[in-house]
Amino acid sequence: RIRIANLIVAFADNNREEVIRLTTEAGMKCETMNPHVIYHYTKVGIDEDNYEITNGLHIQEYLDSLEKMDRITQLAEEFVVLGRTSITLRGLAHALCQSRSTALSWRPIA
Question: In this structure, what is the dihedral angle of CA atoms 53, 59, 60, 63, given to the nearest 10 degrees?
Answer without folding.
Answer: 20
